[in-house]
UniProtKB/TrEMBL annotation:
Lineage, top ranks: unclassified sequences, metagenomes, organismal metagenomes
Sorted UniProt keywords: Cell outer membrane, Membrane, Signal
Subcellular location as annotated: Cell outer membrane
Main localization, broad class: membrane
GO cellular component terms given for this protein: cell outer membrane
Annotated RagB/SusD domain residues: 323-665
Stated name of the protein: RagB/SusD family nutrient uptake outer membrane protein
Signal found in the keyword field: yes
Pfam families hit by this protein: SusD-like_3 (PF14322), SusD_RagB (PF07980)
């Protein structure tokens, strides 16, 4: 049976991403499988590790190579250029600079039956077969008991991750923990193969159980000889912490967007508020296990000043360090097939374009920028919005800046960077703000000018001579080589410039010269880190009233201290959620946080994200900069973004043939 099981897999495991390379000691060391037989895979430990590497590759991680509408592990143009987006761009954090992303729901983030090798149930079957095969290998003496136990725990970790990817999209799904090959009976209706959906509560409980099975025999530390990107005990606890918090929030906030229909009646979607306590407790215990026992610690927790804090925070994402619990690495895709990613070439600001023809496409919103604090540090944790007006009315946004009221009482600045001085170090380490430096260049973000007579030119090329007889340009420079914002909006092929006034910095390899070709980036994706665990614990403690609230307060304040703050803020839900948004910005958590807390539809009901347009004001002898709060160009053009709450649960495909109960509204 084992040979039959593997026959169809041999051909597709030829170029695994966890294979040979110049730093292969960090990965699972494997033999070439170009002409390997099923017997060889099953009769050696290296062969089994090759199968395991393929399973790791199938983890539904929303990393640099995730394409929300088409699947996982897509490199280059895989899935089409229009689908090359980051999870963050489906939220209020950021937007794709050409505006081409859908806003969540059934048009994105699908993960069920897809025609690729990362289909969830195909991969779950692979996990089941792997568990069967290592049992055979143990009985044959190919591997010892300790090796068997570790491999088994890794398989359960991968299964937990696969089902987490399913549950957060679909609610309750069929729970299958064995291969069904022997259940197929030719000539019959094969009724045994049509496994119904389990309840949503049972599905989440199953995920936590799989995490517990993973914890059992995973090592506390992984060594380079074993492959440092394999899961440790703490990675399994980290996944459990994340999944349990997700489930708890779904239970607590079901009533914010209740759904009706057969699936709801059968509890295939939805849980009761009473179910939340169990999951919050599971989150607290899993988080505490990591915090107390793992040896993981915050990276550079005690900066001497805010400048050092910004540097430290930026390099947290560019180095291997003690905060990282689980991550995915990439070899150089320019020399090794199916490796690398495109983050740097696609998202570097225009003035630092490595040489690719699509760049500058990651535009953080003013909404996230406004969330950061300054260093007033008065013990409240209150956000400090960017100051644009002398009357303090920072809640007004111009819908269409082509109709700008130039008599708004603008606060005037001497340079582009001035409004962002004294802001939280994490802002400057995560986002390239107007006037900031990147790779030695001053990044110019300017979207218009106000002429001597009070005429405004916005979102259009132009120039005017100021009272000082100097020529000024709407985009801040005479040619496109000298600016990074607002040019070519609405022109998809040319929209290589920020449409929000900001560009991404987090995860960009500012410390390297990345060639301007596809798959040239090798920065690792950090999937689970200690800061998230601190935030998970704090949120679960506040929401449930359980846990140690003194410690929870210490956890969120330790993150602020790492960012250079000197005060201590109280443990409140608002403070925890704000810290979560700031600390984990652009790491993929915001989309699912809005989903699990049922906040997505409250923001995206004809919702408009916001941009900040720096403009040069030529009405004074010495021109000044003003900053205009506006509705984001693409959201305004679309009449706002609206999310239908039925899409908190995605449509289950193939219900006519798989006989599964469809989710409400689909």
């Amino acid at each position: 049976m084992e040979k039959k099981i593997l026959k169809s897999k041999i051909a597709v495991i030829l170029a695994l991403f966890l294979t040979l390379g110049s730093s292969c000691n960090d990965y699972l060391q494997l033999e070439s499988l170009e002409k390997v037989s099923a017997d060889q895979l099953l009769t050696s430990e290296d062969g089994l590790k090759t199968l395991l590497a393929d399973l790791y590759n199938s983890i539904p991680m929303e990393d640099f190579n995730f394409r929300p509408a088409v699947g996982f592990n897509r490199r280059g143009w895989g899935g089409g250029v229009s689908e090359i987006v980051m999870t963050s761009m489906f939220t209020d954090e950021s937007v794709k600079s050409d505006g081409g992303e859908p806003m969540g729901g059934s048009t994105g983030f699908q993960y069920f039956y897809q025609d690729d090798d990362n289909t969830a149930y195909k991969r779950n079957r692979d996990v089941s077969l792997f568990l069967e095969n290592i049992e055979v290998a143990k009985n044959a003496g190919t591997i010892d008991e300790a090796t068997f136990n570790r491999l088994s725990s890794e398989a359960h970790f991968i299964r937990a991750y696969i089902y987490f990817g399913l549950a957060k999209r679909y609610g309750g799904v069929p729970l299958i923990d064995r291969a069904l090959d022997n259940d197929y009976l030719p000539g019959t209706d094969n009724a045994a193969l049509f496994i119904p959906r389990n309840t949503e509560k049972d599905t989440w409980a199953f995920i936590l159980k799989e995490c517990d099975l993973a914890v059992s025999y995973l090592p506390e530390k992984v060594s380079s000889s074993d492959g440092i990107y394999r899961a440790s005990k703490w990675a399994a606890y980290g996944l459990k912490s994340r999944a349990a918090l997700h489930a708890a929030s779904l239970a607590k906030y079901w009533d914010k967007a209740p759904l009706a229909g057969e699936a709801a009646d059968l509890n295939l979607v939805g849980m009761s508020p009473g179910d939340a306590e169990f999951f919050y407790n599971e989150c607290l215990s899993a988080s505490k296990a990591i915090i107390d026992n793992s040896g993981h610690s915050l990276y550079m927790p005690n900066p001497s000043n805010s400048e050092e804090a910004a540097t430290n925070y930026q390099y947290l994402f560019l180095t291997s360090n003690e905060e990282i619990i689980f991550s995915r690495a990439y070899l150089d895709g320019t020399t090794i097939e199916n490796q690398g990613h495109d983050y740097d070439i696609r998202y570097s600001p225009a003035q630092a374009n490595p040489g690719f023809h699509k760049f500058g496409r990651f535009s953080p919103t003013l909404d996230i920028v406004d969330l950061y604090e300054d260093y007033t540090d008065n013990g409240t944790g209150k956000s400090a919005k960017i100051m644009t007006r002398t009357d303090g009315n920072e809640d007004f946004y111009t819908p269409n800046p082509n109709n700008l009221d130039v008599n708004i009482p603008f606060k005037k600045y001497d340079d582009l960077y001035e409004p962002f001085k004294n802001k939280d170090a994490r802002l400057l380490a995560s986002i390239i703000v107007p006037g900031a430096s990147y790779k030695g260049a001053k990044i110019v973000m300017q979207g218009g000018l106000i002429g001597k007579s009070g005429n405004a030119i916005v979102y259009a090329s132009g120039s005017e001579v100021g009272l000082d007889n100097k020529t000024y340009y709407t985009y801040g420079a005479e040619s496109a080589a000298g600016y990074s914002g607002f040019f070519a909006m609405g022109r998809s092929d040319d929209a290589n410039f920020s449409c929000s006034g900001f560009s991404i910095r987090k995860y960009l390899a500012e410390n390297k010269n990345v060639p301007g070709v596809e798959r040239s980036s090798t920065t690792s994706w950090i999937d689970i880190r200690l800061a998230e665990i601190y935030l998970n614990y704090a949120e679960a403690a506040v929401e449930s009233g359980k846990g140690d609230h003194t410690l929870a307060a210490q956890y969120i304040n330790s993150l602020r201290k790492r960012a250079g703050h000197k005060d201590v803020i109280p443990l409140t839900l608002d403070n925890v959620l704000k810290e979560r948004r700031i600390e984990l910005a652009f790491e993929g958590s915001r989309y699912w946080d809005m989903f699990r807390r049922r906040d997505y539809h409250t923001f995206f009901t004809a919702g408009r994200r916001h941009a900040l347009i720096p403009m040069i004001d030529l009405r004074e002898q010495t021109p000044k900069y003003v900053f205009v709060r506006v509705n984001l160009y693409y959201d305004e053009q679309a009449g706002g973004r609206t999310f239908n709450p039925i899409n908190y649960y995605f449509s289950i495909p193939g219900t006519n043939t798989n006989h599964l109960v469809q989710n409400p509204g689909h």
